[in-house]
């Protein structure tokens, strides 16, 4: 018997209120260090919640395919957790916050050659280098995309223009890849590993696909829409802890404190939150703040969590009916 019951109507109402309240917000601006992202319509805004029985609650621009960017780090972290196990990922990459921006080179130097976590650029490039089968770019790419499809319940689509835009301008990430190679933290060809990372960031997804991914993590590896087991239940809390630690870049502590939900954001404007045992939530809107988190998406997800009086640290058992 749960301590509290939340109704689906309460969730629907909170989602609608959040959408109406923040739709007109004009703070933040599109990421512009990747030229393609600067040109996306800043007005786009959508929210999706996927419950563990597969029911989806959506409002706004939830069909629009946006650049997944850093949220893809979660999917590939799951892939290498599946392929190598939790201990090997801890040893080869780490599970710590850097406290520094997502693309920091200093963080690699300060952490004594360690890429820190698969959820910042350095660790995500290392994770791409670890994806099996080693040495075969096409097979690795297929593994990355099929894993994302299994998690999201439908296939992501490569946004060619974003991939080109990002490949032409990713000088900082090229430095990271070579620095990691210097420290023995790249386990395949460095240029190929960086290219896989850049391509996975350029995959297009919508909020429903991200909310299904989040619900799969919240449901301990079972995709609630396809019913398929995507990863072993024992990995679910590992991935949620990685997200809680660094999912909102250097604002992760403030985020967790104020919203109560581990969530991963990307500079494309996506946010994906995991409420273990209850639901996955995703929101998307292109304008981001100085740390790279979508302004409207974070306002919306935080509003919904507070309105429902939920937190991963709430200490209550909750059921949704
Ligand atoms: N592809 C982007 C980069 O590496 C992802 C950044 C992000 O979403 O945080 O710069």
UniProtKB/TrEMBL annotation:
Catalytic activity: L-glutamine + H2O = L-glutamate + NH4(+)
Entry annotated with the keyword Transmembrane: no
InterPro entries the UniProt entry points to: Beta-lactam/transpept-like, Glutaminase
Annotated EC: 3.5.1.2
GO biological process: glutamate biosynthetic process; L-glutamine catabolic process
Alphabetical UniProt keywords: Acetylation, Hydrolase
Residue positions binding substrate: 70, 121, 166, 173, 197, 249, 267
Pfam family, one: Glutaminase
Quaternary structure note: Homotetramer.
Family statement: Belongs to the glutaminase family.
Protein name according to UniProt: Glutaminase
Gene: glsA
